[in-house]
């Protein structure tokens, strides 16, 4: 999609925290702004974080079909509404893909990228899903929603469910994140959001050839045992980005920010201190 054929932007619900240089935090699929609290609650101590519900997710409800490119115009409108000319973007999974797209198409608006469990050419190695997988996942999710972090549920149902492919470290802490944020996000993800993602995947989404145009500093984080977007796919993205750092965490998977939140937060702060220019020279926010 060219800039000359822009769709009509959609007004996004957004959570804004803190003051200072703006950091746009983009959730994955399914997800909402609340899922990004693991980042925004500590980043907002020193920066201004904006965490929107993407179109078709959470509070950004729509009854109309759309495609993945529409998310970009929504996000540019959001930045304009908040007077932000340049920002750092943190994206998790689908959010990381959108972050890269924004950096490719609007390089002057992006000072840096933090990409988590994502890839410009997303590839998975997820095993076949059985009816038992779906049964145990549903039961574990419902029970965890009612009683987050219950060890019996984790050991009896969770470890036999599809959650075992999302988190290696199935701890009460990670299950509390699931119960508080993941289940509500799943319920509030629209069929139009699912359709837009499915369409992009069917078309064989691959932007590896465009990564050379991203000249800002980038940090790429991945879980070694991520089956949804493999660490190999994330590493290929990191290798193609001109100015990137790569960290792969052992014994973690796609939901690594909820598995090892303290470690992730520590490494983000180290990178931000190493590259102070990514949070300088903003004319807005």
What is the topological layout?
Layout: E1 14-17, E2 22-26, H1 37-43, E3 48-52, H2 68-81, E4 87-92, H3 94-105, E5 110-116, H4 131-146, H5 151-156, H6 163-166, H7 172-187, H8 191-202, E6 218-223, H9 231-240, E7 244-249, H10 256-259, H11 261-274
Parallel strand pairs: 2-3, 2-4, 4-5, 5-6, 6-7
Antiparallel strand pairs: 1-3
Helix pairs in contact: 4-7
Structural description of this entry:
This protein has helices at 37-43, 68-81, 94-105, 131-146, 151-156, 163-166, 172-187, 191-202, 231-240, 256-259, 261-274; strands at 14-17, 22-26, 48-52, 87-92, 110-116, 218-223, 244-249. By secondary structure, the protein is an alpha/beta fold. It has 2 domains: 3-126 and 189-279, Rossmann fold (3-Layer(aba) Sandwich), CATH 3.40.50.1820; 131-185, no CATH class. β2 (22-26), α1 (37-43) and β3 form a beta-alpha-beta unit. α4 (131-146) packs across α7. The protein is globular. The two termini are 28 Å apart.
Overall structural class, as computed from helix and strand content, comes to alpha/beta
Into which percent range does the helicity of residues fall?
Answer: 40-55%
Report how far the terminal alpha carbons are from each other: 28 Å
CATH architecture of the largest domain: 3-Layer(aba) Sandwich
CATH class wording of the largest domain: Alpha Beta
State the CATH topology of the largest domain: Rossmann fold
Beta strands, count: 7
Number of helices: 11
């Amino acid at each position: 999609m060219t800039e000359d054929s822009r769709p009509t932007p959609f007004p996004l619900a957004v959570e804004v925290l803190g003051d200072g240089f703006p950091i746009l935090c983009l959730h994955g699929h399914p997800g909402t702004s609340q899922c990004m609290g693991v980042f925004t609650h500590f980043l907002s101590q020193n920066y201004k974080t904006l965490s929107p519900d993407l179109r078709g997710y959470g509070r950004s409800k729509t009854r109309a079909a759309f495609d993945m490119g529409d998310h970009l115009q929504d996000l540019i409108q959001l930045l304009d509404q908040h007077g932000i000319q340049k920002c750092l973007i943190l994206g998790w999974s689908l959010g990381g893909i959108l972050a890269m797209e924004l950096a490719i198409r609007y390089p002057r608006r992006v000072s840096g990228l933090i990409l988590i469990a994502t890839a410009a050419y997303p590839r998975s190695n997820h095993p076949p899903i059985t009816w038992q997988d779906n049964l145990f996942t549903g039961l574990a999710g419902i029970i965890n929603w009612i009683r987050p972090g219950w060890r019996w549920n984790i050991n009896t149902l969770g470890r036999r469910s599809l959650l075992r492919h999302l988190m290696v470290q199935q701890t009460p802490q990670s299950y509390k994140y699931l119960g508080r944020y993941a289940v509500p996000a799943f319920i509030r993800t629209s069929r139009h959001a699912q359709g837009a993602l499915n369409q992009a995947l069917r078309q064989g989404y691959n932007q590896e050839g465009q990564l050379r145009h991203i000249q800002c500093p980038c940090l790429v984080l991945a879980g070694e045992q991520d089956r949804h977007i493999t660490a190999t796919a994330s590493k290929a993205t990191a290798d193609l980005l001109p100015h990137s750092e790569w960290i792969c965490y052992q014994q973690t998977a796609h939901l690594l920010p909820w598995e090892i939140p303290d470690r992730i937060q520590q490494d983000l702060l180290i990178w931000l201190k190493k590259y102070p220019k990514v949070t300088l020279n903003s004319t807005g926010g």
